[in-house]
Each structure stands twice: as C-alpha cells, then as structure tokens.
Design a protein that fits this description.
The protein has 90 residues and is mostly beta strands. The protein has one helix and five strands, in the order H-E-E-E-E-E. It has a five-stranded antiparallel sheet, with no helix packed on it. A hairpin with a 7-residue loop joins strand 3 and strand 4. The longest helix is centred in the first third of the chain and has 7 residues, at 20-26.
Length: 90
C-alpha cells in the first residue's frame, strides 16, 4: 500500500491502496512545505519554495508514490511530486 506500506493482495492490477481507510487518507487535505520548485511552470505560477500550503494528497500512477494538488494556482491548481514537498504537522 502506498499509504501505510502494508503488503496486500490486489483485487485488480492497478490497485495501489489496501483499504477504504487508506483511500480516505490518500485523498485527505494536508499541510505541505514546498522543498523544490515544480517542473514546467513559470515561477509566478507555482508555489514558493519554503512556504506552507494546504494541499490534497493523491496517489501517483506508475511508481506508487504520492502527489500533492495545491489549489489557487491556475484554473485547477498545481501538482507537486512527493519529492518537491514535505507534509508537515501544524
């Protein structure tokens, strides 16, 4: 499971989350601190490095990691990869 790290038997090939509880946690709002600039966006269109933002965490396809969607940037918000931000506790 990309959220809790537990091994589980997949019900379908693309499944990356083990349970409903982990699915809810995966889509939960979190506070993040941006650690690296995002790729492919103009500087003025992306969150600033070092600042904190409210974001929604979502599972990432492929390698099983996590991405963050930060609202307020562009029409739909901006997506940051897991290595571009860190979750913090407020």
């Amino acid at each position: 499971c990309i959220i809790c790290g537990q091994h589980f038997i997949r019900k379908h090939p693309g499944q990356k989350i083990c349970s409903e509880k982990c699915r809810q946690e995966a889509n939960a709002e979190v506070t993040i601190r941006v650690t690296k600039p995002g790729n492919g966006l103009l500087t003025e269109m992306q969150p600033q490095v070092g600042k904190t933002y409210r974001a929604r965490r979502i599972p990432r396809d492929g390698d099983g990691g996590v991405m963050y969607i930060v609202p307020g940037f562009g029409k739909y918000g901006v997506i940051l990869k897991e290595e571009e931000a860190e979750t913090i506790t407020v």
